[in-house]
Amino acid sequence: MIKDWEKIISEVEKDILTLSKDELKKKYLSKEGIVTNLFKEIKELDSKDRGIYGKELNKVKNLIEEKIKRSEETTVKESNKRIDPIFLI
Q1: What's residue 79's pLDDT?
Q2: How many folded domains does the chain comprise?
Q3: Which domain holds residue 65?
Q4: Is the pLDDT assigned to residue 71 strictly greater than 90?
């Protein structure tokens, strides 16, 4: 049941460039998201494979969470920009 991690990471990286943070959360991290379901599969693995599987899955999860965090920080920075009153005239 070991996954093709390169393929999964490639898909995630593509989605990071094209999906919004909310779409990423829904697709990967929601209750029925891809990452959530992959974590549920850990219990079906042999104990010797669980560590490797968990590490790889955590890499994918951290990649997505970092993108979401950067997106949220950018949104906050943009919302904190002041509007020059000269442009309002």
Answers
A1: 57
A2: 1
A3: 5-70
A4: no
